[in-house]
Design brief:
mainly alpha; about 80 residues; 3 helices
Length: about 80
């Protein structure tokens, strides 16, 4: 499950980059996912349960953070390119 879920993020990031629009993206959803990964990482670290899963959490968190950054870039592009 973790591998399949993790593989979806690079596709989401690539789609966000190419789309150049924030339409169809939910900032709330992306932030909720990022928070989930951050809490998962904190839980593993605090409990001393360090394993390869921590690497997947960190990589997935990085991808979600990139997608959040692209959301803000695309939102700015939406505002700039909107007809006045």
């Amino acid at each position: 499950m973790m591998i399949c879920f993790g593989l979806s993020w690079p596709f989401s990031v690539a789609r966000s980059y190419r789309a150049r629009t924030a339409k169809g993206k939910s900032l709330f959803f992306l932030c909720a996912i990022a928070l989930g990964y951050a809490v998962g990482i904190a839980s593993k670290a605090l409990l001393g349960n360090i394993s390869y899963v921590l690497g997947f959490y960190a990589l997935n968190l990085l991808m979600v953070l990139v997608d959040i950054a692209l959301y803000f870039r695309n939102r700015r592009l939406d505002i700039t390119n909107s007809p006045s």
